[in-house]
TrEMBL record:
Record carries keyword Membrane: yes
Residue spans crossing the bilayer: 20-40
Species annotation: Dyadobacter sediminis
Protein name (database record): YtxH domain-containing protein
Entry keywords, A to Z: Membrane, Transmembrane, Transmembrane helix
């Protein structure tokens, strides 16, 4: 039973870190795009 629990726990941790990495990349891209839109007018790049 202990071995089974450890296997489940390992799978859970691995899945959470992969999901966290993807979410982190998406949030980083969204924040970067938002900052670019905010600072574009100050750089004279008004579209």
């Amino acid at each position: 039973m202990k071995t089974n629990y450890e296997n489940v726990d390992y799978d859970s941790d691995h899945h959470e870190s992969s999901t966290g990495l993807v979410i982190g990349i998406l949030i980083g891209a969204a924040v970067g795009a938002f900052a670019a839109i905010l600072f574009a007018p100050k750089s004279g790049k008004v579209s």
